[in-house]
Write a structure and sequence with these properties.
This protein is an alpha/beta fold and about 500 residues long. The chain has a single domain, classed as Alpha-Beta Complex (Amidase signature (AS) enzymes). Helices cover about 40% and strands about 15% of the residues. The strands form two sheets. Strands 1-3-2-6-8-7-12-13-11-9-10 form an eleven-stranded mixed sheet, sandwiched between helices. It has a two-stranded antiparallel sheet with strand order 4-5. It starts with about 20 loop residues before the first helix and ends with a helix.
Amino acid sequence: MEEAGSRRENIGGTGIDAATATVGGLHRAIASGALTSAQLTAFYLATIERLNPRLRAVIQVSATAAAEASASDSARANGAPGRPLEGIPVLIKDNIAVEGMPATAGSPALQDSGNGDAFLVGRLRAAGAVVLGKANLSEWANFRSPRSSSGWSTLGGQAVNPHGTGRNPSGSSSGSAVSVAAGLAPVAVGTETDGSIISPASACGIVGVKPTLGLVSRTGIVPISLAQDTAGPMARSVADAAALLGAMSGPDPADEATGRAPGTLADYTVFLDAAALDGARLGVWRDGSAAAGPAAVALLDAAVARLRGCGARVIDPVEFPGVGVIGEPEHAALLHEFKHYLNAYLGALPGSHPATLSDLITFNSNNAATVLAHFGQELFEQADATSGDLADEYYLAARGQANRLATRSLDGVLRTDRLEAVIALSGSPAWLTDHVLGDHHVFGSSSPAAVAGYPAVSVPAGFVAGLPVGVSFIGSPWSEPRLLALAYAFEQAGRAGDASTAIAR
């Protein structure tokens, strides 16, 4: 297996190394005329053609990507105002609608559905981005069976972590993470209900941002739960993730949650500050990774030392009372919400496809040889057995309990200790893919922020036996500017340390 970041390829004769290319660097090269979007897009399409048969990270490339890139070049040549992502290729997770490419969620049940662009895709196009194609994912965003294999979908096959032979990329934004890590695209969009951005970002060694619920529109995304669903950026650096977040976020009249945002920020990169950790108050949540082995704990210890070395005031540890029992009420609420929101989504979706969750279960059973080849649809069946009624007293009690536990835990720590963020290991190193027993997930710290709708940023922290592990910065609602600044300072301090080590050797 070719390891992530191991390729050294020149993009379009520019001298830009594909393994270290950044959105900012590519944007400057395009603006200066040293590189065209057509050349850049052709480079990534060729890379996908060469590497995707092994990585299975991309379900479909866009038939119009080359034309979009050429149109971007023509507009620039004719004096059109520069845009923040002008000519930059972006991969979109395949539960997000793109004109001409249905949001399949990895399932053949939706491959004949119709749709235009999701709201966030329209935002990206308005910022000048070129849609490169659709990224593979854990089918139905990992909400089909408790014995699923993350990164596997009927349409896309099994996505492969580029950091180790046979290692799983985690999910459900598996293809988005693999594509960025392996250089199939400079940036990608993922989605999360609980862990689906943070976990694959950590396992594949990239940056992932799970925004505050409502910062990014969900219109045009196959739903699990509008109480927790959000899309977010996945990139090789915090700066690239910040650039993508600014382009994709914004108010959408069709998604009322976006109306709660305190204001629209067009550019999150202006908040990036390599000195942001100096004087910052941070807490360390160790219980979130209590199941971690000694090598992973050592990475957390090293991260804490780096934070302190950068001038941060660190409270270690902090506790989240009650957070350990969030899972049961969260799961009960998600089952009700999935039935309710998926039935509404399918009922309004153009094209030929199952009309309800019950019809979808029948479709899967009728196509069991392919769709159910590796695992079942137990979660579908459990969800369909609920009322799907969001006025149901049982449902309201479950959702209320989950939200109270999550928000009280986070708010209690952030406010009582006057913290700007809490840090924790994002998740366990990548396990071996197992289509018999399913995922071997050891630990993850995503649930409190996911259930509360609070933001989190995962940044690479180091390696365990050659496998990446990330550290998450978790903050209060709408604190993305500060979280990105803190994550950027942590990232830059790590790179400086790596450079010093290399020189010393």
